[in-house]
Design a protein that fits this description.
The complex is a heterodimer. By secondary structure, chain A is mainly alpha-helical. Chain A has two helices and no strands. In chain A, α1 crosses α2. The radius of gyration of chain A is 16 Å and the shape is flat. Chain B is an alpha+beta fold. Among the domains of chain B are: 3-17 and 150-211 and 335-385, no CATH class; 47-120, no CATH class. In chain B, strands 4-3-2-1-5-6-7-8 form an eight-stranded antiparallel sheet, with helices on one face. The chains are: A mainly alpha, B alpha+beta. The A-B interface holds A 13-17, 20-21, 24-25, 28, 31-36, 39-40, 43-44, 47-48, 50-51, 53-54, 56-58, 61, 64-69 and B 163, 166-167, 170-181, 191, 194-195, 197-202, 205, 290-291, 293-294, 323, 326-327, 332-334, 336-337, 340, 343-344, 347, 386.
Chain lengths: 69, 386
């Protein structure tokens, strides 16, 4: 693969981390604004996704990852 | 990124992490059971439960509750009284030798409806107490707290520098790549990067709020100095109100609650204790809304007359402190949040452990003469491998 343009490289590198960071932030704040309600469910969902991502890429996915080159 | 820039960030990441890692591992490990302290208390049978009674059972007079508590420890004074966090049918009364802050305290639990003595749990011993003290102050009081707070600041530096280094390490790797087919240390480097980025925002928030919590004592002291000095002006020079001259607490509590409608009691700080003044019952109320229930509204009630002296609203810095507590404890989103808190905590332990492993391994393999350059070896390694 040829070197991607700058913005494509930025997306390649940071799309996942930014998405996970935003999800975590929303999850942390959501439950502050509700008591046993939608906020708690939203928080569980938003914090659950990064945990699942870590589990999936870290342990569950067993095949050799495809290189970008 | 310039090679020298990478080197600088790598140096910052290495040293900030190295200094704090052992303490952060301790905090992550001791924090794990603390997430579930209620559940563990139930399992161990140390959690006190109020007997079932019809919900409209009238509540006992608070002064009768205090009489029961004082009868258990006639040589001690009441420092704090609070309704149970999860069960308003319980009163927890904290008894100490003097009003001064101390770790020598006894707790008396009284039924809020019958004023019957229910239990005298010892919160100052056992497994959970050790976990709690190791987590909060290493058994070293304020100095221990501030020390852990400083270690927490280093953790924040390590997180930020680690995030900067994520770019050169992952430049040519798909997100989530874990190169298992290569040497063990490459696999662990990838896991370190993956879990580091997955836990990034969570650990940043839990770390930062933890650091803020270490300043709680100082913040409260400053608040008293900043906000209460003028309120207490008329009382200047007067000694601590002796127990015999104090008004009943029940009317004081009712006066406070009239002052702040739509609130419920969080706890009462008795005259002379660290959260009150020598002349007041300070009654801490909290709101009934999800967000206001995390904030506090103190009402100073004159200990002689049971009349409200002032109900100052909390300044921003106390509100910040109060809001940083749930964000650190993860106790505001029910059981699913507790479980996610634990999983993210375990992920953080793996990040810390793998970081330590990678450093130890590099130290063993890197020749002595090139030691200063060694910090970038992993980056080069990662890049050449990609």
């Amino acid at each position: 693969m040829t070197q991607p343009p700058k913005y494509r490289h930025f997306v390649f590198l940071w799309a996942w981390p930014i998405a996970l960071g935003l999800l975590t932030a929303v999850g942390l704040v959501a439950a502050l604004f509700s008591e046993d309600g939608w906020g708690d469910h939203l928080a569980a969902l938003c914090l659950g996704i990064p945990v699942l991502v870590g589990l999936w890429f870290g342990w569950l996915r067993r095949q050799t990852p495809r290189r970008s080159e | 990124m310039q090679n020298t820039t990478i080197k600088t960030w790598a140096w910052v990441h290495k040293w900030s992490s190295l200094v704090c890692t052992v303490f952060m591992l301790l905090l992550c490990l001791t924090g794990l059971p603390l997430i579930f302290h209620h559940e563990i208390g139930h399992l161990l049978g140390t959690e006190v439960e109020a007997p079932a009674m019809p919900p409209d059972t009238p509540r006992a007079n608070l002064d009768d509750v205090l009489t029961v508590a004082r009868a258990q420890y006639p040589d001690r004074v009441v420092q704090f009284a609070s309704p149970g966090e999860d069960d308003y049918n319980l009163w927890f009364v904290t008894m100490t030798p003097t009003p001064e802050p101390t770790t020598d305290f006894r707790s008396v639990v009284v039924d809020a409806r019958t004023a019957a003595l229910l239990a005298e749990p010892r919160f100052d011993q056992g497994f959970m107490w050790i976990m709690f003290k190791l987590h909060v102050d290493l058994f070293a009081g304020l100095a221990g707290k501030l020390f852990l707070g400083f270690m927490g600041l280093l953790l924040l530096v390590a997180i930020v520098s680690g995030t900067v280094l994520y770019a050169p390490f992952m430049r040519k790797l798909q997100f989530g790549s874990v190169r298992r087919e290569r040497q063990t240390h490459v696999k662990w480097l990838d896991l370190h990067n993956l879990l580091g980025i997955v836990t990034l925002v969570w650990l940043l928030v839990v770390g930062a709020t933890g650091v803020i919590n270490t300043w709680a004592d100082l913040v409260i002291k400053y608040w008293q100095h900043d906000q209460l000095t003028s309120i207490l002006q008329p009382y200047q020079g007067q000694p601590l109100v002796p127990a015999a001259q104090r008004a009943q607490l029940q009317p004081a509590l009712e006066a406070a609650q009239r002052q702040v409608p739509d609130s419920r009691l969080f706890f009462v700080a008795f005259p002379g204790t660290s959260y009150s003044s020598p002349h007041h019952y300070t009654i801490f109320l909290k709101g009934n809304e999800p967000l206001t229930s995390k904030l506090l509204w103190p009402v100073l009630v004159d200990a002689r007359t049971a009349e409200v002296t002032a109900a100052p609203s909390m300044p921003w810095y106390v509100k910040t402190l109060l809001l940083s507590q749930p964000l650190h404890f993860g106790d505001y989103g029910g059981r699913p949040m507790q479980i996610l808190w634990a999983l993210l905590d375990i992920a953080s332990i793996i990040v810390l452990g793998s970081g330590l492993y990678l450093w130890l391994r590099k130290r063993k393999t890197a020749p002595r003469t090139t030691a200063p350059a060694a910090s970038t070896a992993t980056a080069d390694n990662a890049e050449s491998a990609a």
